[in-house]
Amino acid sequence: MKSEDLRDLAIKALDDMKGIDIVTMDVRPLTSITDYMIICTGRSTRHVKALADAVAVKGKEMGAPLVRTEGERQSEWILVDLGDVVVHIMLAATRAFYSLEDLWEPVKELREQKS
């Protein structure tokens, strides 16, 4: 499965479950760990868990080669690793505190240079 297909699958699963403020970043120019990072906010710990479960289930159904999750116990920030796509699902306060979008700011700069 191509990384773009995994990305689209994850975005659809998050959107179907009413994920908030879904952001996708192409991080290929910056790291070899993954191709895409997706960040999404959930309304509650229960919603964060449901979003992560939806992404993991869809990934497994579509034959994603590797599906791992971390952070389910607290459910303030759950990471779903699909290999070429890493999905971060967080509560709003957690997302604001860690500000992953700012950590990966060079991605935004690269996008602007290519435009």
TrEMBL record:
Cited Gene3D superfamilies: Beta Polymerase, domain 2
GO terms, molecular function: ribosomal large subunit binding
GO biological process, one term: cytosolic ribosome assembly
Coiled coil segments of this chain: none
Presence of keyword Cytoplasm: yes
Compartments in which it is found: Cytoplasm
Recorded GO CC terms: cytoplasm
Key words, A-Z: Cytoplasm, Repressor, Translation regulation
Function according to Swiss-Prot or TrEMBL: Functions as a ribosomal silencing factor. Interacts with ribosomal protein uL14 (rplN), blocking formation of intersubunit bridge B8. Prevents association of the 30S and 50S ribosomal subunits and the formation of functional ribosomes, thus repressing translation.
Similarity comment text for this entry: Belongs to the Iojap/RsfS family.
Assembly information from the UniProt record: Interacts with ribosomal protein uL14 (rplN).
Name of the protein in its database record: Ribosomal silencing factor RsfS
Gene name in the database record: rsfS
